[in-house]
Amino acid sequence: MSYFSIPKLSSRVMTVWLRNWDVFMKTYKVNFLPPFIEPLLYLFALGFGLGTFIDEIEGMSYARFIAPALIAISIMYSSFFECTFSSYVRMYYQKTFDAIIATPLSIEEVITGELLWGASRSLINATIMLPILWAFGLIELPESLLIIPFAFLAGLLFATIAMCFTAISPNIMALNYPAFLFITPMFLFSGTFFPLSLLPEAVQYFALAVLPLTHVVTIVRSLTLGAVDGMLVFNLIWIIVATAIFFLLSVNLMKRRLIA
Amino acid sequence: MIVAKDLVKKFDDFTAVDGVSFTIKEGEMFGFLGPNGAGKTSTMRMIQCISPKTDGKLEVLGMDVNTHQREIKQILGVVPQENNLDPDFNVFDNLLVYSRYFDIPRTQALKMIEKLLDFVQLQGKRDVMIDELSGGMKRRLILARALINSPRIMILDEPTVGLDPQARHLIWDKLRSLRSKKVTIVLTTHYLDEAAQLCDRLVIMDYGKILLEGSPDEIVKEQIGTDIVETENNPDVRACLDEKGAKYEVMEDIIQVYTSKPQEITSHLLKECQLGKITARAATLEDVFLKLTGKKLRE
Questions:
Q1: Cβ of B98 under 8 Å from any chain A Cβ?
Q2: Most buried one in A178, B109, B205, B214, CB count within 10 A?
Q3: Is the domain defined by B2-215 classed in CATH 3.40.50.10470?
Q4: Which pLDDT score is estimated for A67?
């Protein structure tokens, strides 16, 4: 069994997505609250608190600088945690995947449904944040509306990376390692709260090469500022290629784990 | 319906199923018996198309399990060993969500769910979350879930494990009523009385091989006879039995005499040997099982 075999998929993938959507909507009030509250907390603490000591950053207010970062971070967190801890619970504790593969669905379709759901969580959370940030005058319309479809793509990237970790974790606690060693450094060093250009050049290249969030932040920031340029194609291609690689890897790793 | 020939399943260098052959006919209830690790569950998982076979032939309705997974799974109903109901949903939604995996149209699914809730007597619990169900209710719901696609073949791995006698009998009744509708039923069980009650035919497996095959009555009669006379183990008794040419087995401190003429043996033993205790009883599948697989505990 290869690590990069291309899975055969059918429309039944959506029944797995729908299962997760149904569970999500049963507690939608709780689920819609964090994407409302989180950006407000960060905005007040960093943007309007810490930001008062910063006159200007790259020609804009600090709140305006971090607003797109908050969206990008939310995209990363929602799909990453959905496809690590939540997927692990469904796979290992609830045996949901085992129950589904007894039906005509294949394990590849189950995992693909989970990944699409993770990406949908990113899209939902990013969409909820937009009107709040707009109300504070921190993002430009209509360019910022492009963040909605982009959140799905970027969400899919983090979902596929997350699913690879889920596939190789010996237990649920082990998922804390990628959360602390991969997600937290990205949260801080991807051009989120200060420009990437402040870092030593070597570190900048490192960030661009292996920290997916840098590309997501760059694209989201261009959209919120309404300053789209051709260089974004490079970021977009990086995201698409990485998503394709990690998609194949995650599906095959999961197959290896669950089908003996 | 299901044909296996020299079927093999290997996990790395461990051989779980070692060249078994069997044929399961339409409408029969077929049992796989054996101690833990005998290869029963591995065989079931290969029939279910969730564990690819390593070698040999395994066909369900003439379709190979390694190449026609989707078509085979469409007509199977599966009751797994471990309860894997969806704890995020209530009883009704468990069935509805499951029906979608089979692409059953919603209106048809809703009708089916009502029928199934009646069938397993869970109408009163339709809005209850899974965690609040008793063990017996969970098993019944799993049975209902396995029937959502009107399967032609049911695969049940230990369907009554951990249930009280009432719940077991209810499941047995349901399985018999399915058989009467010509559904083919394949099951594994550790309860030998269950196998004797339900199965038309069964195999006893150990160490990945099939030791014997037949109907429960046939197997008992062939291997043991109709009755067992038990008496204490001492050299005099053994000499006495040898003289009579009886078939017997020594099990630590007791001797079991396999026979179809218990009165004769008993009176012979009582008359001619010096005996303390002696009991005669009908032979069961359990006697065959222990005779074939031994009394040593399995991991």
A1: yes
A2: B205
A3: no
A4: 94
How many CA within 13 A on the CB side of residue A177? Answer: 9
CB-CB neighbours of B258 under 10 Å? 21
pLDDT in tens, A168-213: 999 999 999 999 999 999 999 999 999 999 999 999 999 999 999 9
The band of B6, judged by pLDDT with boundaries at 50, 70 and 90, is: very high
> In what order do the strands lie in the sheet containing B14-24?
B14-24, B2-11, B55-60, B63-64
Q: Among all residues of chain A, which has the CA nearest to that of B89?
A: A23
Q: How many CB atoms lie within 10 A of CB A216?
A: 32
The phi, psi pair for B48, rounded to 5°, reads -75, -5
Domain boundaries in chain B? 2-215, 225-282
Burial B26-60 (b: 16+ CB within 10 A, else e): eeebbbbbbbebbbbbbbbbbbbbbbbbeebebbb
Extract the tokens encoding A43: 């905005």
Question: Three-class SS of residue B84?
Answer: coil
Using the 8-state DSSP alphabet, how is residue A143 labeled?
Answer: G
Report in angstroms the alpha-carbon separations of B27 from A215, B1, B179, B185.
60, 9, 6, 7
Q: Which of B11, B94, B101, B153 to mutate to test the interface with A (most CBs of A within 10 A)?
A: B101
Percent of chain B with pLDDT over 70: 97
Question: How do beta strands B201-206 and B76-79 pair?
Answer: unpaired
Considering only residues 76 to 135 of chain A, which have any Cβ-Cβ distance to chain B shorter than 8 Å?
A: 94-96, 98-106
Tens-digit pLDDT profile for residues B108-128: 999 999 999 999 999 999 999
Contacts of A233 (CB under 8 A, 6+ apart): none
**What b/e readout covers B133-161, taking b as 16+ CB neighbours within 10 angstroms?**
beebbbbbbbbbbbbbbebbbbbbbbbbb
State the SS3 of A11-52.
CCHHHHHHHHHHHHHHCHHHHHHHHHHHHHHHHHHHHHHHHH
The stretch B44-67 carries a mean pLDDT of 94
Q: pLDDT-derived band of residue B222, with 50, 70 and 90 as boundaries?
A: confident
| Domain spans in chain A, listed from the N-terminal domain onward | 13-258
- Mutate which: A95, A97, A103, vs B, most B CBs within 10 A: A103
Q: Using a CB-CB distance cutoff of 8 angstroms, which residues of chain B are in contact with residue A102?
A: 48, 50, 73, 76, 78, 80
- Do B18 and B29 form a contact (C-beta atoms < 8 A)? no
Which CATH architecture best describes the domain B225-282? 2-Layer Sandwich (3.30)
Across the interface, whether the CB atoms of B52 and A259 are under 8 A apart is answered yes
Question: Chain B: nearest CA to A10, how far in angstroms?
Answer: 11
State residue B5 phi and psi, 5-degree precision.
-135, 120
Dist. CA B107–CA B114, nearest whole Å: 11
Residue B266: pLDDT over 90 = no
